[in-house]
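Possible regression after last week's pipeline update?

I re-ran a chain I had predicted before the update to compare outputs. Posting the input and the new output here so someone can diff against the archived version. Not blocking, just want to make sure nothing changed silently.
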Amino acid sequence: MSGIALTFGGNPVFSDLDLVVQPGDRVALVGRNGSGKSTLMKVMAGLVEPDSGDIVVPPGKSVGYMEQDPTMAGFATLGDYAASGLAPGEDYLVERAGEGLKFDPARAVGTASGGERRRAALAKLMAEAPDLMLLDEPTNHLDIEAIAWLERELGSTRAGYVLISHDRAFLRALTRATLWIDRGAVRRQEKGFDAFEAWRDQIWDEEDTARHKLDRKIKAEARWAVEGISARRKRNQGRVRALQQLRAERASQIRRQGSAAMALEAAPKSGRKVIEADGLAKAFGDKTIVRGLSITVQRGDRVAFVGPNGVGKTTVLGMLLGQVAPDDGQVKLGTNLEVAVFDQTRAQLDPDQSLWDALTGDPDMRVSGKADQVMVRGVPKHVVGYLKEFLFDERQARAPVRSLSGGEKARLLLAKLMAKPANLLVLDEPTNDLDVETLDLLQELLDDFDGTVLLVSHDRDFLDRVATTTVAMEGDGRAVVYAGGWSDYRAQRGDDAPTQEADRAKPAKPKAKPPVQAPKAGLSFTEKHRLEALPAEIERLEAEIGKLEGLLADPELYTREPVKFRKATEALVARQDKLAASEEEWLVLEEKAGG
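New output (post-update):
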């Protein structure tokens, strides 16, 4: 690609873009939601025509794109669609991909869900095996087993690929180079995603230093221009023109988009025991969802549910919340629970509503007699101001929900969720379509949230960052409770938690018993995990306190920015209290561990 320029709605998406993808490249394509990642990929695929510039694909080389919303008109089944680009006799390639990605080639197109259609589009691309594969969020709608299959396939292929994904573990495992879209510019680094965040932060630090130097130079030149009037009747016009150029350069710089100003506020505390389930069992016909599940969820726990799609994770969540009656066993819910739900199907969003109406029309957010305000954790806010906190601009406020990207819909749903005080969050696939920076912020919010979290996710990295307990739905009604996140669950199983596909591919052999690690005396699994996590939490709190103290050391901050001063002071007190509580908790657990 050379000299590519593209404008949408009067705003330049790219200008003078040069980019080369080599044979066998394994490239992560990263950038904020709305930065143009999918648009760039469609330009590469020839689906979007640039305003100017050239795209060259060498003779004999092929490029394939995984469609997000594939058009299947004229095809009876998903298998017919997936095999449409193959030579006669190569249908077995679709069947093989169908097994790995868990979709039924015989499924009628008219009855297929959006997720099944996307898996068929991915299977079509994998079966066609072009020289360059363009993959836009391929892990959405895949469970962990299917993600592992896709990871193995891409790891062993000789083809090149450009990959957009929110799944850090997937990107780290597969990529050797990174393309970063930031404010219309595309940068390339010859290192995989694992090195991206350090690279990004270094570039931003260099930008900030250069901008600071430019600001100082402009101030010095402006002072000369003003003070020189009284000393000289004839000014140096060349120097005045240089000052104008400096100001024009500063004005042309595009500011970085900030992080969404997300905040979670717990409702009044729930009881110490949030959920107590004993001997739960549930079946639909001859399919057993779960049997004999017993679990106690305490206030502050982060419980993750993992397992293949269709295994019954949502059903088990419904039983634990008292929404689905078990066939056997009982559930006791704690006192004073206020529940907020993040729904992976985005069913809470009406595609025909505007963003404005999606918020003001919500009964829980409506402010009596105010059509332009919403209630956010008990405080009325202007709807446009609240949308801006989640990185929507004023023009989008009246746009229909259907015009949003997947990441923007997720952000809108988070805006609705975070407006309501809650002490029990239920998050069903919250990571789909979110960019890396927003995922980081969501994780930090969950770390600081005083309530309890029930989480369904296939994102291994996010599970490791958030979960304190993992309930593994292993099929045939087995639901086993493990301490810790995804990696802890695999370690405790003792066999690296192989996928069902891997189990079928290997000859049967006796399973090794999990290595027994003697817990410290007197500590439960949860307490042991907490004791191990506390030093890092204490270190993080100390670092945050240091930053806040540095900010408040500015003697002019109170006069210049009183609101910022007040918020920083409140944050400092809150973190000092939390640090003291964490240190006290560590002392108690360490003493208990020592017997």
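Follow-up from reviewer: compared with the archived run. Residues 70-122 form one domain. Marking as no regression found.
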